[in-house]
Amino acid sequence: MKGHTMPEWITSVGQTDYEASVAEMEARVAGIAQGTKDEAIWLVEHPPLYTAGTSAQVADLTDPDLFPVYESKRGGQYTYHGPGQRVAYVMLNVGDRGRDVRKFVQQMEDWVIATLAEFNVKGERRDGRVGVWVVRHDKPLTAAGIPPEDKIAAIGVRLRKWVSFHGLSINVEPDLSHFEGIVPCGIREHGVTSLVDLGLPVTMDDLDVALKKTFAETFG
Asked: Residue 186's pLDDT is what?
C-alpha cells in the first residue's frame, strides 16, 4: 500500500435497484467528505437498464422502450447495466489522493486493465474513447484491414467535494444484445464484448477477487 488505508468493500447479492444505489452512494460520499465515513468500493449488479451521462445525445438512445432509462450525473454518454455485468461504485477521497482528476480516471483504467490481465486478457485504452477495449484477432478484419475492437469495460465518474462516485462496469456474462438499444458511449464503429464472450469461463466471484487484488496494486 502507498499510505492509504484500504476502503471498505461491499458486495450486494442479487440485483440492486439503480435509484436506491444512487441515493446510497450520495449519502456515503457526503459522509466521506465530512470525515465521518470510510472510503468504499461497492460491487453490485443491476436489473437491465440504461443510464444517460452528462454528455448523452438523444439520438444515441435507439430503443427508448427496451429498458428503463435513468439520467445520471456521471460523466460520459449512454451506458447499459444489467445481470452478468459487474458494476463497481468507487467512493474515494480524491482530495487526499493528489487532487488530479485526469490521473484518477487513468488509475481507473489501469485498474480494469490489471484486472483483465489476471485472466490473460489484454485490455487497452484508446485516445478519445474512455473505457477499456479488446482487440479481436479472432474476428475478420475491418474494411480498413485491421482487427476490430470491442469494448469490455465502461468508466464514468463524478466528483463532489473531491470525493468520487459512480465508477466502472466490466462485462462478465451479460446479454450482449441488450446493448443494442443504445449507441454505447456514443461510439458506433466498435462492438461490445464480455469475458465469457471471449471464451473465458470467468464467474462474478472470480472477477471480484481480481478487482480487490489489483485495486491495492493500482491505487494503494
From this structure: 52
Task: Give the per-residue SS3 of 6-69.
Answer: CCEEEEEEEECCHHHHHHHHHHHHHHHHHCCCCCEEEEEECCCEEEECCCCCHHHECCCCCCCE
Residue type, 107: Q
Write out pLDDT tens, residues 144-166.
999 999 999 999 999 999 999 99
Which are the catalytic amino acids?
185
What type of residue is 81? H
Residue among 198, 177, 181, 186 at smallest CA distance from 154: 186
Instruction: Record the cell numbers describing residue 90, joined without a space.
Output: 468507487
Flag whether the pTM goes above 0.90: yes
Q: What angle do CA 15, 16, 18 make, to 5 degrees?
A: 130
DSSP string, 130-152: EEEEEE-TTS---TTSS--EEEE
C-alpha cell at 101: 482528476
- Give the residue from 55, 48, 74, 49 showing the smallest Cα distance to 186: 55
